[in-house]
């Protein structure tokens, strides 16, 4: 198994912040052993960080971590290959969680992010942006923060057509009104 030492600690990358809906009530109504089993179920459902074009020499492209009812997914960097891999991975997590009857909502952002697993340090404005957007979201799904527009604007036309269908404009309910927002399709 490859090591992840080739990951840069600070670089432009994508982050998804996902929240388990109803988790606080679930914890209140169930024992800690049941809550632990539910989180183990979610962790076990995590898709493998592999695809048909996976390159073991390159190392893993995704970091996935669960803290209480929060899931963080980080891409290795902002390359086009990792953009495609990241979006596919997030879609798989959502699909697999729904199959296990674990509803999720979340947001995706982009920018300079520090991922230092050795020191257990994760920080950057995109993490805050994704968290705040998810907190405001009032439906089950995943929306894109406006920072995510930059990677799409910089794609060649051929590459853009490969991923454009993964985003969809949706009238999205937020705490303080409904807005049209790009969502993960």
Output the keywords.
two-stranded antiparallel sheet; 8 strands; 31% strand; 185 residues; six-stranded mixed sheet; alpha+beta
What does this structure look like?
This protein is α+β, with helices and mostly antiparallel strands and 185 residues long. Helices cover 35% and strands 31% of the residues. The protein contains 6 helices and 8 strands; from the N terminus they run βααββαββαβααββ. It has helices at 23-29, 32-45, 80-99, 125-136, 149-153, 157-163; strands at residues 10-20, 62-67, 70-75, 104-116, 121-123, 142-144, 167-174, 177-184. The strands form 2 sheets. Strands 1, 2, 3, 4, 5 and 6 form a 6-stranded mixed β-sheet that branches. A two-stranded antiparallel sheet has the order 7-8. Strand 7 (167-174) and strand 8 (177-184) form a beta hairpin. The radius of gyration is 16 Å and the shape is globular. It starts with 9 loop residues before the first strand and ends with a strand. Residues 50-58 have low confidence and may be disordered.
Largest sheet: 6 strands, mixed
Gap from first CA to last CA: 32 Å
Taken from the alpha-carbon principal axes, the silhouette is globular
**SSE order in H/E notation?**
EHHEEHEEHEHHEE
Total of helices: 6
Q: What is the typical, i.e. mean, pLDDT?
A: 84
Number of strands: 8
Please state roughly what percent of the residues sit in beta strands, choosing from under 5%, 5-15%, 15-25%, 25-35%, 35-45% or over 45%: 25-35%
Helix content: 25-40%
SSE-based structural type = alpha+beta
CA gyration radius, whole angstroms: 16 Å
Low-confidence stretches: 50-58
